[in-house]
Amino acid sequence: MKIQSIAVAFFLLAHLFQCLPGMAQQAQSYDFPQPVDTRSRSIKVQEKKTWTFGTVQASNQFDGARLNDFSKKNDSTFVATISPENKPVNASPWYAFKIWSAVPRDINLEIYYTEAEHRYSPKVSRDGKQWEALDPSRVRTLKGERVQLSLSLGPDTLWVAAQEVVSSTDVRNWCWQLILQPNVRYGIAGKSSLGRDIPFLDIGRDSVEGQDMIILLSRQHPPEVTGFMALQAFMDALLADSPLANAFRQKYRILVFPLMNPDGVDLGHWRHNAGGVDLNRDWAYYYQPETRQVADYVVQTARERKNQVILGLDFHSTKYDVYYTCAETNQQIPGFKDYWLQGIAESIPDYRPRVEPFEIEQPISKSWFLLQFGAEGITFEIGDDTDRDFIKVKGRTAAIEMMQLLIFRK
Ligand SMILES: [Zn+2]
User: Fold this and answer.
1) pTM (2 decimals)?
2) From the candidate CATH numbers 3.40.50.720, 3.40.630.10, 3.10.580.10, 1.10.1240.10, the one assigned to the domain spanning 168-406
3) Fewer CB atoms inside 10 Å of the end CB: C or N, the chain?
4) How much is the average pLDDT of 111-130?
C-alpha cells in the first residue's frame, strides 16, 4: 500500500513536471543590452457607440475601429477625435469609422489627433472590403494634427479608414481559406489578454520529424496592414501549385502567426496590446501573454518534431519599404540575407531594396530568432503608402527567392 502510494506520487510528480509549460520547453529569457520594461500598463478603451447630429451619424461599432469622439463644430463641419490607447506611443494615428446621413449632403470632416500628426492618407469603402484612396482633392491638412476631409454622405454607410480594415475575423477567414489546401493546418497558439484567439498555420508534411523550419509573424503592431498584405502575397507563392513550391513544402515546415496582437487589431490600437505594451519589445522576458505563448509554442513544437528553426520573417509597416536585418552572422544560414535581397532586386525591375542592419540591442523578434535558434531574423517592412499591387509583387518575389535559395540546401 505504501509502495503503491509512493509510486502514484512519483507518477503524479513526473506527470506534473511533464505538463508544466516551463519545464525545459519554454523560450529562454535574455538580458538585452537595451532592456525594455514590458510589464502591463493601463490603457484607455474607446467607448463603442454611434453619434447622431441631425441626419448625420458616425459609428465605431465594429472590430478594427478607432473613433474616440465625434462632435459637431458648425452647420457643415464635424470633428472626429482620434486618441491612442496609452502614452508614450509611436506616432501611428490609426482611425476607422463609419459615417452616413439619412438625407444626402456634403460635409467637412476634421480628423483631430490628440497625440500625433496626420500620417495615413484616408481610404474609403462602401462595404468595408473593397477600398480606394479618397480623392486627394478632398483632403486638406489644416495643421499637423488636423486634417479636413470633404465627404459626400448619403443613407448608405461610408467607411473611412487610415488603412484597409483587416480585423481578427478577416484574418481567421483568410486562414480558413488556406487550409482547404493539402498539408496546411490551422491551430490556436493561445489566447490574448482579452481572450481572443492567437491563430497559426502549420504548413508541411504532418508528423515528419527533423525538417528545418521557417517562422512568419505579422500584426504585432495593429495599424501595419501593408505588412500583412505582403505576408498574404508571400503565402500565395508559398502555397502555389508550382514545382518549386511543392518541393519546398515537402522539404520544410513553415509556421505562420498572422495575427500576433488580436486585441490591439480589433480595438483599433495605434501600437500596443491590451496590456498597453509594444509586443515587439517583449521578446526577452515575455511578460505579455501573446509573446509568451507564441515563443513557447514555437520552442515546444520545434523540439517535439526535432525541427531546427533557420529563418524568421516578421512583417511590419513603416513610412517606406525597408528590410531591418541583424548585423550579427547567424549560425543556420549564413549569407542567406545577402543572396536573398540580391535575388529580390534582380527579379523586380528598377527596384533596389533598402536594408538597415542592426546590432542586437532591444528585445525585438528578429534578434530573438538569432538568440533563441541561431536563425536569420529579418523585419520585412512595407511602406504605409506602397502601391498595393507592388506589395503583392514584393511579397510573392520574396517567397520565390527564398524557396529558390533554400531548396538546394543539404
Ligand atoms: Zn511594426
Assistant:
1) 0.93
2) 3.40.630.10
3) C
4) 97
